[in-house]
Amino acid sequence: MTGLGLAGGAILPATAEAAPSGEHLDTTSLRFAVITDTHADVVLPDRSKDLHRMLTVAQGLNPDFVLHCGDITDYGVDDEFALYRSSIPAGLWDRMRHVPGNHESRWTPDAFETYRRYFGPEWSSFEQHGLRVVGLAPMQLLQEPGLFGADGFDHVSRALRGHDVPTAMFLHYPLGADNYYVNDTEDFLDRIAGHRVRAIFAGHIHRQQVAAFNGLTQVAMRNTYAVPSFYWVERTADGSRLDVTEVAVPVTGSPTSTPVATIPLGRTGPGEALEPKHATVHTTQQSITVSAAFKTAPAQVLAQVYPQNVFSGSNAGTWVPLARNGNTWRGDLNATALPPGEHRVQLRAIGNDGAAFDRTLQAKLRANSATVSWTAKLDGAIQGALLPTSTGFVAATTGGQVQAFSAHGRSVTRRWRRSVGAVHRAPALMDRTVLVPSADHKVYALDASTGSTTWSTNLNAPVLSTPLMTKIDGRHRILVAAGGRLYCLDSRGRILWSGDLHGLFAGRVACDGERVFAGGGDGRARAFDARTGAELWAVSITTRTTPYQLLIYGAWNDELDLLPDGSVLVATVSAALALDPVTGAVRWQKAGSYIYTPSRLTAYGLLLIDEQGNVVMTDPATGATRWTIRPVLRAFESGPALSRDGKTAWLVGTTGLLTRIDLATGTAESVLQVSKANTFSTPTLIADRTLVIGFQDGVLRGVTGL
């Protein structure tokens, strides 16, 4: 059976290369199974019964090991993990190896703690019979897309260092080809170059796709519970390749096997010889000229502007064939519709066998005014909003760094630095104290001038929400969620009361001085007595019924707000709702996925932004639309920054495009493609002159010339 290469969105056959004469390859018998996307769910027990029956068949084939490519469960909670564990046939568990999927990272309230209890570390590696096997986990807690980041690449390098044997990797998201689920895939391909990575097994897309590129063959698999089926992999007797088949296990009748792919294990993998000797780009405001030369002549060379606005998805692309002149290939890409700033160009060389070599090049389109004047690198991703202070701003990262900065036009000064546990949500300010929520179970109170710890409080679960500093009866109170509970702390960090949120809440509560309002994990919004924590009301804000659906279609990630008439604004992926603060009754609702990006009250009305990048100016009293535009294509959690006069909103889309919005007229202008990295962090505007934006690559970027 042949492998498959991907060219310009079309699947082409790729022949397997034989191992070079004289090369030593391990010929020990090696066989293993691969499964993915089992989605264990306590309300869908047939999935687990099918899984047990299917794995019993796989066990009968005596695999050396079984790989699971993630989405083990529907939403990563203990009872689902326990159900999955009970589905594994006796005697097979010790041969199982797992990596998490987005369903283990997107909605987990405990930052992988339960996952690790069942399966061990997210990243793993082992060697068996001359095959190196590496489990990859480029997952982002509370987010959809994948990202390796510096820490992930360190895991990759350690797993490969000193192992000159064929390597197979397994992870949840498919890489390369037409897949754009992992934001730094091109850096991953650079990192593994020369390390004999020959196979990648992946899931997520719930369909089968085989692609051969950059020396490896990737098999993205059907979701296991669909047929159900598993993938069976055997190394040939001469050790030169892996043969992959899909084994369907119907409820009745015998299992059937279908050939899927052949994966060569030789020292040179498919497409590897097509690596360009050199490749360059030259930009003007109208075009990007791409040029590449090769030692081994490809059959075809294509290029395209990287589809930056594809958010955790697949895209066939708009590939342009380059023209050949000797060993050099050259062509122009249209740049007239691109904003100024940072861009990428994808180069794809395709051989006669259909295998490809992909390389990503950097391109910059000159800006007339707005530009990135300074950058500052932090460890980890900047996932929560930046915190404005009287002297500048504070940024916190998933690497556990908290840093305070002062910005001065075209420069920035670091004032202090602290290390805590991973921070996934924004810090808050209480007078001269910075309140930091951490996945190490603590809320830290840091002196805003020095960064020294004033106090810390252990809430016995990862703190994955943004604290709200408010006053109740004239006294400072801190309201924050952790581990499915809402906590009220005093200004010294003492717990005054807690309330049950019935599951994950990763947003921010609202408080009117009498009541505290929150979302939760069971599809309801709730009000608590601000003084005692007693529950006052709970109202359903979704029509879904199963635990998994109640969570993801509820207000689990919303930053609740108070409207001028006292209504509570709460949002889900289906609608924004204004609720009566006393009863929870719906006063108005507006269809749209407004749960992720924070709303803003302006002099012109209530600014709502949905996940598709639609910006809607709304009457806060009635929910009526005043105007609507779509300045960015995706918007998740990075809220608008308002100018000092309140007339302009600066919005950075998730994929890094900065836009200027006139709030009076509802018109927008693309200003700058600030970065190739994603952002989920609300920026801060310093003195109306510098917009500071934090990105998932851990880089702060200061944009001036606004």
From TrEMBL:
<feature type="domain" description="Calcineurin-like phosphoesterase">
    <location>
        <begin position="30"/>
        <end position="207"/>
    </location>
</feature>
<feature type="domain" description="Pyrrolo-quinoline quinone repeat">
    <location>
        <begin position="414"/>
        <end position="470"/>
    </location>
</feature>
<feature type="domain" description="Pyrrolo-quinoline quinone repeat">
    <location>
        <begin position="476"/>
        <end position="591"/>
    </location>
</feature>
<dbReference type="InterPro" id="IPR004843">
    <property type="entry name" value="Calcineurin-like_PHP"/>
</dbReference>
<protein>
    <submittedName>
        <fullName>Outer membrane protein assembly factor BamB/3',5'-cyclic AMP phosphodiesterase CpdA</fullName>
    </submittedName>
</protein>
<dbReference type="InterPro" id="IPR002372">
    <property type="entry name" value="PQQ_rpt_dom"/>
</dbReference>
<dbReference type="InterPro" id="IPR018391">
    <property type="entry name" value="PQQ_b-propeller_rpt"/>
</dbReference>
<dbReference type="Pfam" id="PF13360">
    <property type="entry name" value="PQQ_2"/>
</dbReference>
<dbReference type="GO" id="GO:0016787">
    <property type="term" value="F:hydrolase activity"/>
</dbReference>
<dbReference type="InterPro" id="IPR015943">
    <property type="entry name" value="WD40/YVTN_repeat-like_dom_sf"/>
</dbReference>
<dbReference type="InterPro" id="IPR029052">
    <property type="entry name" value="Metallo-depent_PP-like"/>
</dbReference>
<dbReference type="Pfam" id="PF00149">
    <property type="entry name" value="Metallophos"/>
</dbReference>
<dbReference type="InterPro" id="IPR011047">
    <property type="entry name" value="Quinoprotein_ADH-like_sf"/>
</dbReference>
